[in-house]
Design goal:
single chain, 106 residues, Methane Monooxygenase Hydroxylase, Chain G, domain 1
Length: 106
């Protein structure tokens, strides 16, 4: 496995970990455990930031002239990262809505 493949697998793994933590946050919020939900959202953000840093490194290197072969695995990693970013953002909003409704808001 070369360095690019390792980076791509790290993007996939970090994205998956982030998505899992985000859904755990939603599950906690549905049980009205908002402290745990907030902790899981922080964890999800940390995990997705790790994936995003790798993605940024690859993009920067390409912009500086270091060409890499585009593989299906790279496309999959990008898809995984972007869908996780969307899921995490939506789940964060859902947790806020649940918390507000629990506190008499909305």
């Amino acid at each position: 496995m070369d360095g690019t493949e390792l980076e791509v697998f790290k993007i996939i793994a970090s994205s998956g970990d982030s998505r899992g933590a985000a859904f755990e946050a939603l599950k906690a919020a549905r049980k009205r455990d908002f402290e745990k939900a907030r902790q899981k959202l922080v964890e999800a953000k940390e995990k997705i930031n790790a994936a995003h840093m790798i993605q940024t490194k690859i993009i920067t290197e390409e912009a500086q002239g270091e060409k890499r072969e585009l593989t299906l695995l790279m496309v999959h990693a990008q898809d995984h990262l972007m869908s996780t970013l969307l899921a995490r953002d939506l789940i964060e909003e859902m947790v806020h809505i649940l918390e507000d409704s629990n506190n008499g808001g909305c």
